[in-house]
User: Fold PTS fructose transporter subunit IIA from Leuconostoc falkenbergense.
Amino acid sequence: MNYLILVSHGRFSEGLKDALSMFIGDEIKTVKAVGMHSGEDTAKFEERFKALLSELEPDANLIVLGDIIGGSPLTTAINIIHQSGQLSKTTILGGMNFPMALNAAILKDSLDPDNLTQAVLTEATTAVKKFELSADDDDDEI
Assistant:
């Protein structure tokens, strides 16, 4: 089984998971979210992340999306995954946004890790752009 794990500061990952549920339906059961709450130390977050990992199948492949590469939540999660011996079965990406998470959730069971990484990163960067109205858009409803 492949799991998507969303890791963030605050409740960002939990909110993102909630939004994903509107798009992926039953597949949401393979998406997990954990955030380091305001005022929480890394030891407490570590306990909660270990508990999350213990709920997963031992031979699971993991796709971990973090809000910030180098941030405490993602580095703590990576350390725990490494200690559990699952790092070789884990793809880790940072800079999490909704298009990235949606593509990871949809494609995680159909692409190998390298192709999944490429697809998810391409979508994540393609989706970030400035929204502009053209003169032709004036007559259209927004």
